[in-house]
From TrEMBL:
Native source organism of the sequence: Gossypium hirsutum (Upland cotton)
GO biological process, one term: cellular response to oxidative stress
Catalysis performed (reactions): [thioredoxin]-disulfide + L-methionine + H2O = L-methionine (S)-S-oxide + [thioredoxin]-dithiol; L-methionyl-[protein] + [thioredoxin]-disulfide + H2O = L-methionyl-(S)-S-oxide-[protein] + [thioredoxin]-dithiol
Name under which the protein is recorded: Peptide methionine sulfoxide reductase A5
Catalytic class of the enzyme: oxidoreductase
Length: 213
């Protein structure tokens, strides 16, 4: 009985915290009604930069990057494939991804790469934990030669940490990013609940980074 009461208290806490985030915190992400393919620059203000990563479930990815100081908003979506207008139930060859819009005066691409490597297992083939499939593969999407160079250097450093297995992370030039359906964006209340649970899980990995939650 005590266990049931404890679980109920935790659920109530998460629900209240989620409601608080839902109504008070609109800086983490944005719902994009137009799901047409778009490039990073079309989504951001001139003063902001964008980066796109795939590191498993986009709910987890959004939670990881959305809590960083300097990140203005995040958008869950699909990238890395050839199918036009993919959907959650019909991804084609795309990967679940997250677009990160950030203020370069507060955070830079190098730090985002560090968060990327520390927040998932880049040696797992086509999956992260219980999420298995090519849609959960690890990808760094780049926008230009400088980002490609930084991504390649960071991958090489990460590989040197262990030679017993090969990193599966791909580095790709971003062609198109398709925002996911509204219910998969982080201003959905259900996603806020999942976001809090995910943040509790990943907090230890991000302890050395400055968080905004």
């Amino acid at each position: 009985m005590a266990s049931a009461d404890s679980n109920l208290l935790i659920l109530n806490f998460l629900t209240l915290a989620s409601l608080s985030l839902f109504y008070a915190d609109k800086a983490f992400c944005i719902r994009i009604p137009d799901r047409a393919s778009t490039t990073p620059r079309e989504l951001s203000d001139q003063s902001l930069k964008t980066a796109v990563f795939a590191l498993g479930s986009f709910w987890r990815s959004e939670a990881v990057f959305g809590c960083l100081n300097g990140v203005v908003r995040t958008t869950s979506g699909y990238a890395g494939g050839s199918k036009i207008n993919p959907e959650y139930r019909s991804l084609g060859d795309h990967a679940e991804s997250v677009m990160v819009e950030y203020d370069p005066k507060e955070i830079n691409f190098r730090l985002l790469l560090e968060v990327f490597w520390s927040s998932h297992d880049p040696r797992q083939v086509f999956g992260q934990g219980p999420d298995v499939g090519p849609q959960y593969r690890s990808i760094i999407f780049t926008n230009g030669t400088e980002e490609a160079r930084l991504a390649a250097m960071s991958k090489e450093r990460e590989q040197t940490k262990s030679r017993s297995s090969i990193l599966t992370t791909q580095i790709q030039q971003l062609e198109s990013f398709y925002p996911a359906e509204p219910e998969h964006q982080c201003n959905s209340l259900a996603i806020h609940v999942k976001r809090l649970v995910i943040l509790i899980d990943v907090k230890s990995n991000l302890s050395k980074f400055t968080l905004s939650v």
